[in-house]
Every structure is written in C-alpha cells, then in structure tokens.
Amino acid sequence: MTDLKNYRSPVENQWCPGCPNFGILNAVKRALVDLDLAPHEVCLVSGIGQAAKLPHYLKANVFNGLHGRAVPAALGIHVANPQLKTLVISGDGDLYGEGGNHLLHTFRRNPDLTVVAHNNRVYALTKGQASPTTPRGEKTRLQFDGVDIDPAQMLATAIVHGCTFVARGFAGDIEGLSKILSRAIAHRGLSLVDVIQPCITWGRHSVDWYRERTVPIPDDHDPTDREGALDLAIDVQDRFPIGVLYELPAKAAFAETYRERVGDGPLYALPRVDRSILEGQLDRLTVGL
Amino acid sequence: MDRSVFITGAAGEGIQTIGDIVGRCFLSHGYPVFATQEFESRIRGGNSSVRIRVSTDVRNAPREDADILLAINPRAREHYAEALHPDGLLLSSEGDGVTIPFSDLATEQGGKAIYANAVAAGALCAAVGLPFPVLEAVLTSAFAERGEAVAAANVAAAKRGFERAVAKLGDQRAEPLPERDRTYALASAHDVIPIAAAAAGCRFISAYPMSPSTGIITRFARDPELGAFAEQAEDEIAAINMVLGASAAGARAMTATSGGGFALMVEGLSLAGMIETPVVIVLAQRPGPATGLPTRTAQEDLLFAIRAGHGEFARAVLAPSDPQEAIDQTIRAFDLADRYQIPVILLTDQFLADSSFTFDRFELPDEIPPARLADPDEFEGEYARYAPSESGVSPRLAFGQGGRTVCLDSDEHTPEGHITEDLEGVRRAAVVKRREKLRRLRGEMRGPSSRRMDDAERILIGWGSTRGAIDEAVDRLREDGHKVGAIHFIDLWPLPEPPPQRDAATYWTVEGNATGQLAQLLRGEWRWRID
To answer: Are residues A62 and A118 in contact, defined by beta-carbon separation less than 8 angstroms?
Structure first.
C-alpha cells in the first residue's frame, strides 16, 4: 500500500511561501496514494514555469522538458510505456499558450493521459506578463494598457473536441481537488483538469476572492450533457464552477491497434523484430528473383 | 554500354510508373540501372522526368544528357529537348521524332486511357532493344495485385506500343539487348532506412509530412512488420518532443524531416543534448532557404546540422552516400545515439531519397549492437540519472525500470536530475561532462575514404550523395591524363584527427551549396587549405 510518505522529496522548494501550488502538490500526492500508485509507476511531465516545478517536489519519474512541450513528450512516454501512469502538470501559459496546438490535437487523439493545468492567469516565473487566460482589461507587467483581447477558452475547446474528461478544480480546496484528480487519473482517456490557482505574488485577487467565487457544479448536472458542460466551461472570469464538467465513457484508446499487436508492456522490453523478416524485405528489392 | 533514357511528361501522367516498369525490365534482363526522379512541387501538370541510366557495369551516378527522350506530351518534348543528343532518339506523342500516339493506342480495342503508360513502356522497350517477353513478365508481376484482367489489359496495351515502335523505328531501333545472367537489387536510401531502423530496434517514429522525407514515416506506417508505432505529429516541434519522450521511456525512437522542419526541431535538439537522451533524426535536404524548392536536391544544411541548437552539447552528423551505406549508417546512428546518449543526425537529400540505385544486393550488417539500458540492480540507494562519470556518459535507466524513479530536466540539473543554479559546483561539472562526451565521440569517427590518391595532384573532396558522380568524374579525368584523386566524407561531425595534406596538391570541395560549407568546416576544424 502506498503512503504519502513514499512521495516525499528532498528537493528544495522554490515556490513563494503560501503559494496555492502547495495545495495542488498535496492534492496530487493524495490522489496518487488514493489510487495506490507507487512512485516508480508514475511519470510526471511538465514544461517550464513555477507550476512546472511541481514534479520535482514529489518522488516519481519526472520529465521536466521544454516550455510548451509537455503534452507531446507525455504522448511519447505513454506510448513507449503504457504501464506508467503519465500525468502532465504545468501552467496555463505553458499548456494553453506555448503548447496550445499540442493540447488541441491531443484532445482529438484521446490518449490515456491526465493534464493538470495550474491556471493562475499570469506568467509568474517571468514576473507578470499576461497569460492566455488573463481577463480582458487587466493591466499587467507587459500589457500596460490592459489586455486588449479576450481570454482563451480551453475547457470549452476541450469539450468541443471531444475530450472525454473535463474538470475544474480549486487549489484552495485540497480535499475536493484530490477527489477530482483521482477521478481524472482513473478515467481511461484524456482528462483535463483546469485548476484555479491564485498567484499570491503577481495576481490581482486574493485566494479568498477566488474562494468566494467558486461554486460547486450542481449534483443534477449530467456530465454527458455537452451543452450544459459548455455553459459551465465558458469562463466568465469571476465565477468558477468547480467539479466534473464533462465525462464520456471510454472511446477507442490511442495506439490501441499497435498495442493489440505488441501487447501492453514497455517497448524497451520487446525483442527486436526478427532479423529474417527484415532480410526478407531487403531480398524482395532484388528484381527478377 | 551506357545509355541514358529520359521519360518525361506532366505530373499525374504516370512518368514514375513507366520509369519503374522499364527500370525493372533492364534489371530482370541482367543490366544495372540508376534512375533519378525530377519533379515539381505540384500534383498535376508541369514538367517532370524519370531519368534511367542503363549500363553494362553498375554506375550509380546520373547523366544530364539523354540518348533517348520519351515525351508523353508536347510540352515535355519542348521542355526537355535540349537534353537530347543531336543524334539521339525522340519518341513522342505527336510532332517531331518518332511519333507513337500513346493515348490513342491505349483506348484502341476498348482499353482505358490510363494504359497509355503501358503503351509508352512498350514503345520504349522496343526502342532500347529489350525483348517483349521481359516487359510482359514485369507488367504481369507489377499488376498481379490488381487481378488478371488488369494485368492482361496492360500487357495488351504495351504490346500495341511495342509493335508500333518496332514498325516506326525500323533501323533506328537499337540492337537486341542480350540477356545476362545477373540479378540486381534496386532501392533508394529512403526505401531501406526504415528496414535498417527496424533492425536496430526502432519502435517509435513521429514525423510531419515534408518533402523529401515523408517516405520514411510512410513506410513504417504502411508496414506493421517493421514493428514501430508511427504517429503523424501536428507539427515538427511535437514530433521531436514525442520522440524524446518515447526515448526517455526506453524505446528506440526516430524522426525524419527536411531543413525547414529541422529548424522547428532545433530547441528539441538542444533538449536531447541537455537531458542526454538518444534520438535519431533523418534530415533529408532540399534547397532553401525557407520553403525553397520542395522537390529538388541540395546539400545546404551541413553546417546547420552541425551547429543547430542553443548551448553546447554533443551530437553526431553522418551523411551516407548510397542506400547500402544508409543501412549501415542508420544502424550505427542508433548505436552511437544510445552509447553516448546524444542526438544523431543522418543527412540525406532528395537525390538519395528518390533515386534508385542498383546493388548486387542490400544487406544488414552481421552484428547489430544491442540497446543500452542499464541494469537497475547495479545501483545502491537512489538512482541518479546523471551520476558523475569519467567518460561523461552516465548509466541510463528508462522511467520506472526495475522499480526505480528517473528524473530528467531541461534546466541545468544535479546528478539526480533536479533543477540547480549551483554554478561553481554542479554547473561546471555538467558542462565538463557534456564536453567530455564530444571528446570521446570524436574517437569513434572515421576519416574520409580515398580513391585514386596515390599520385593525385588535384584532389576533389565531397560528402554524402555526390560520391558516384565525383568518382565517375575522377575516372574520366584520369582517362584524359589528369592526376586527380577523390576523398569522400560520411562522418561529418565530430571530425576525427586530420590526416596530413599534400603541399603540392590542390584541394577542391565539390558540394551542392553556394558557400562551400564543407570547405568552411575543414578550414575551421582541420585548418586545411582548400583552394
């Protein structure tokens, strides 16, 4: 049985004291323990940013790659070893901005991955530029006259593209978030969890401001109801429905056909393709045999 | 015997099919061919050609002139007329030369217009002295999958073309070509790279379609026997990052692209160097800059491949010069990538991708080195992915292997793989580690091959796909009394220790670019004089 202790990491934490990222870290650990996953069975993939440092702060396999490129890396890891539980954990700038194209097309692929976005509406590590989810009009360290375009709507985009599990969480509610994450990770297919994560250094609003504006998604919301999910998804910027917006039964798994041929184990454990088969292919290049 | 046949027409008119059929006819009759393809970046129309060189001895180099020109349409005739020898033979659909109405002959007796290709193939075979039964056998085999009726219809159309050509050519028809009891194999470099990669254990390829590299991922996708998962990425940035993820999880993985796509992969290349994860990248060159000429050939990306990627890290750059070498270098690429935990770039080009070379046969090397993941049981305590190592290479585990956790980081990192800004200690050691890999890698690299160098006073230096042409040029110059020799590079980075230069000889590089990239490289790295 796994325990929270198993996930302890000695790495020095670089987050601001009191950062809601700590809440997300705790929720992730709890979810992994809840699912009885051991650290070596988990692979956390991140890009660059404060959020993207999370994988270093617990014990697990870690691929802390390039800014915006966590999703494709995670895809490669997942196909190469589907026995790993692979999670993408990164910020909104990384996942929705720099990496938006990869997320978009991965909604279409529906691999068995979980994507956790720390949505703090700012580029914190680079000190305060707007992110794709910064509300229109908000003044930032680069948009001095206020952001003059509308924010991206990634949850709605996910739903429209048939992402089979879409949820919103709140970093200030560790218990609730860990339950959402457990469901997201257990879900077979792509899960996107957008976590409202107030930034206490660069953000416009306090954690309490956000807490007052989170509302649980009503119990009578049917998670297979696309229209209802879209209503809950479209970010009105000062009201945050929290919970599972959309959940579809598992569709055909990404790389399923290939896996039917080679089995479920890691690719590195497969024997090489029979040499005689390949020599046969080269022989067939001979004309007139 | 050394004859050059140009088959010309518009895109969509079956030029490649005719070329493929006629090429196979020569081969099955016992004659090696070398065929290049020349086409525009479009789907229909324009001008394209397949150029077949047939000879008694294997000559894997192109000719720019034609002894026989087959023009499927009048525009092709005009466009390629200059290439034809004054006393060469022109076979065309109408107008000058020997006219064979390919389409009309195709639709005679209820045939379909598409059989015009077979008609043309028939006419061409007649003109070059191939007996009809050879063509019949090749067509029957080529169309076997489509059923007897289709095969028979093609044979009938070919026969009409053959007979019409015999009638019209009269004396102009070549002497019958005697059959030779030789078998040959025909392939392009990109036909065989996937097979070699599979032999090396490649299980994952992700790529974005881009001429002239697309054939590589296509082959993997079409052929499950090769055993790899093939994913068309949404862009080249996704491709390289997917491949690195797969490799970090322990799978041998590769991608293929051209210059513009490689440009997008460059940050990923730097990532490979930083996280010390093996990857093989086929860079199939075409003329640039930017979109350039998508379907033409060039050697313009040598220095780009060697220098790409911010920061400093080891990589290898190999440039095979023919399909057999492409097999050997692909297998070597996976081995080098694995042993040094680096990216290895295989430089090819449109010429290598789309030309068909004749060899006696194509072979896998006897020994294919195994993959290099460490044994998880050999580590006491925590596993550190980047443990200090005299060679610069740390034993590598895949994620979760043997119950271990592995941490990789694109930031500068500690031996355990965590972010660090310890400049004096960790950073310094990491820089030295990465540099040491390059130093050791140099010891693996092979110098250039040489040919006819004994008394050479003028030395031609080439790399990659130009070898056939350069060697032939050297032979011709020698016949005319010039003391010319050639040296040819396959390993381009890192370069091994330089051999001595001859003071009395002049050195010229021969390469498909305007700024002399190999010359720059040799002057810089070897302090060679390039005249």
So the answer is: no
Check CB contact of A283 with chain B, cutoff 8 Å.
yes
* CA pair distance A70, A88, nearest whole angstrom: 6
Q: Which CATH class is domain A4-254?
A: alpha beta
Asked if B298 contacts B288 with a C-beta cutoff of 8 angstroms, the reply is yes
- Chain A positions touching B241 (Cβ under 8 A) are 65-66, 69, 72-73, 76
d(CA A72, CA B240) in angstroms, rounded, equals: 8
The shortest CB-CB distance from A76 to any of B184, B204, B267 is to: B204
pLDDT string in tens for chain A (289-residue length): 899 999 999 999 999 999 999 999 999 999 999 999 999 999 999 999 999 999 999 999 999 999 999 999 999 999 999 999 999 999 999 999 999 999 999 999 999 999 999 999 999 999 999 999 999 999 999 999 999 999 999 999 999 999 999 999 999 999 999 999 999 999 999 999 999 999 999 998 999 999 999 999 999 999 999 999 999 999 777 899 999 999 999 888 899 999 999 999 999 999 999 999 999 999 999 986 5
Provide the token pair at A242. 């929290």
Are A76 and B27 in contact (CB < 8 Å)? Answer: no
Can you tell me whether residue B405 is helix, strand or coil? coil
List the single best residue of A110, A273, A275, A289 to mutate versus B (max B Cβ within 10 A).
A273
- For chain B, what's the residue count? 531
Closest residue by Cα to residue A192 from A70, A19, A59: A70
Tell me the chain A residues in contact with residue B187 when contact means C-beta distances shorter than 8 Å. Answer: 285
Tell me the C-alpha distance between B488 and B518, whole Å: 11
Number of H helices, E strands in chain B: 16, 20
Give the span between the Cα atoms of B263 and A241, in whole angstroms. 42
CA distance B245 to B278: 10
**In whole angstroms, what is the distance from residue A87 CA to residue A55 CA?**
10
- The answer to whether A69 contacts B268, with C-beta atoms less than 8 Å apart, is yes
Q: Give the C-alpha separation, B496 to B345, whole Å.
A: 17
What is d(CA B408, CA B416) in angstroms, rounded to the nearest whole number?
Answer: 8
The length of chain A in residues reads: 289
Confirm whether pTM is higher than 0.90. Answer: yes
Single-letter amino acid code for the residue at B79: H
ipTM above 0.95, yes or no: yes
Structural domains in chain B?
2-183 (3.40.920.10), 187-359 (3.40.50.970), 376-442 (no CATH), 449-526 (3.40.50.920)
Nearest to B406 by CA among B247, B273, B239, B268: B247
d(CA B103, CA B119): 8
- From residue B103, alpha-carbon distances to B44, B112, B116 in Å are 17, 9, 5
Q: What does the alpha-carbon distance between residue B403 and residue B380 come to, in Å, rounded to a whole number?
A: 13
**Is A43 within 8 Å of chain B by CB?**
yes
Domain boundaries, chain A: 4-254
